[in-house]
Amino acid sequence: MNQQLAGYAPTPIAARMENHGRSMLKVAMASGQDLFARTGSMVAYEGFIQYEPNPPAARQVASQWITGEGAPIMKCSGDGLLYLADYGADVVVMNLNNDSLSVNGTNLLAFDAHLQWGVEKVKGLAKFAGQGLWNVQISGTGWVALTSRGTPIVVDCGRGEDETYVDPDALVAWSPELKVKGKRSFKASSLIGRGSGEAYQMAFSGRGIVVVQPSEDSTDRLRIRG
After folding, report:
1. CA-CA distance, 210 to 102, in Å (whole number)?
2. Based on the number of CB atoms within 10 Å of its own CB, is 50 exposed (0-12), middle (13-18) or buried (19 or more)?
3. Judging by DSSP bridges, how do beta strands 134-148 and 35-38 pair with one another?
4. Which Pfam families match (predicted)?
5. pLDDT in tens for each of the 226 residues of the chain?
6. Which residues pair with 125 in a beta bridge?
7. Which of 123, 126, 24 has its CA nearest to residue 83?
């Protein structure tokens, strides 16, 4: 191999999921260890891997994705190495240990198929934005990969008594154990988020983490245009 390209070659397998650079996910596939991944995210693979678009497990909850928060998924199975990406977005790999995570569907790249998952409505926000906010909640022990538009920050909300406020368009994921409420911002609406109109923030309190990306999602999840 050309020495100038040697640094980009695949690295030895160290875990079920790991980063290959900032913007690519490498998954070690094995029989009986199926994976759910964002449809269209496969960029390369080695070995024998099969893909099933819109599997039955996804169809069961597809009707709940009425707000555009979800993303179509495919089931991946087989043996080999699978590489996934999402238009150059940063990839964040997490290993849940009998834990749970609430994820913005547009930021969900892949997760172990044996994990429990479903679409849930975030409590306490409906009065701020009509139908409210729907997220994908994943729980159990296994691997999850998220995407972030730029290097994210992970805020530990258990360090103090103060609430953590996040623009919902920049929100990637959070611990479901956190208490969530909405906050209106009138005077600062022209300074927070993109565009004009009445702006909202999500306030988190309790013990847990919040993952925030430095680039706002294009869905304007809790914003009312005026």
Report:
1. 10
2. exposed
3. unpaired
4. AIM24
5. 567 677 787 788 889 999 999 999 999 999 999 999 999 999 999 999 999 987 776 765 655 554 444 558 899 999 999 999 999 999 999 999 999 999 988 899 999 999 999 888 776 565 555 445 678 899 999 999 999 999 999 998 876 567 888 888 899 999 999 988 877 765 554 555 554 444 678 889 888 999 999 976 655 444 433 3
6. none
7. 24
Determine the 3-state secondary structure of 105 from DSSP.
helix
60: which 2 tokens?
A: 């069961």
35-38 vs 17-19, strand pairing mode: unpaired
Q: Please give the Cα distance from 93 to 48 (Å, whole number).
A: 24
Structure tokens at 48: 């024998």
Label residue 177 exposed, middle or buried (CB < 10 Å: 0-12, 13-18, 19+).
Answer: middle
Q: How many residues does the chain have?
A: 226
How far separated are the first and last CA of the chain, in Å rounded? 58
Torsional sign, CA 141, 23, 200, 222: negative
C-alpha closest to that of 74 among 112, 117, 28, 38: 38
Alpha carbons 91 and 184: distance in angstroms, whole number? 31
Separation of alpha carbons 172 and 102, rounded Å? 9
